[in-house]
Amino acid sequence: MSEFWIYFEIGVRHFLSRNAYEPFLFLMALSIPFAFKDWKKLLILATVFSVSFAIALLLSIYGMVLIKPELINIIIPLSIVVMALYQLFTVGKGAKNGTISVLIFLTLFFGIVDGLKFSNQFKTILDSGGTNKSVHFFEFLIGIEVVQLAIILGMLILAYIAQSGFRFSKRDWTLVITSFIIGVVFPIIIENKFWFR
What we know:
Blueprint: H1 2-16, H2 22-31, H3 39-61, H4 69-90, H5 97-127, H6 133-165, H7 170-190
Helix pairs in contact: 1-6, 2-4, 2-6, 2-7, 3-5, 3-6, 4-5, 4-7
């Protein structure tokens, strides 16, 4: 049972680590326009992220998909900005089927790229974990899923407080959160080594 918590915690830290907070910011951007009544859509999006992340992680661990790290390191912050801007420009336009389809695509894309980024580090962790690699992999994924749902729940609570308690409009709430996300991510894009090769 202690091994479960080790790999569960690795999954949690993937989102909450100071050095790898991109998934946290992406989930913030993803959750912006939703309310508690939209929990089914958010659960679908969280599952899309987990599944795409897991598949990309496995494909990369077994050498079936390889992408240069410097390319991944620029794609990840760019995709966060794209998600934040998409939420900003579509706020108030209703949750149409086209909107959820775009969110599913962006989530799928980010999950794949994030899985590829984490694969080298996770391969090292798995190699040192003994023979139960598939069990450890699923323990890690449980940690990922739990922290995803916690972040999404936290965003829903903040949105409710801001919009009900402080009378923020949905557009103002979206503007505040997207501005914060872009403000954090933009320097990462500008200072990325990709531009200075």
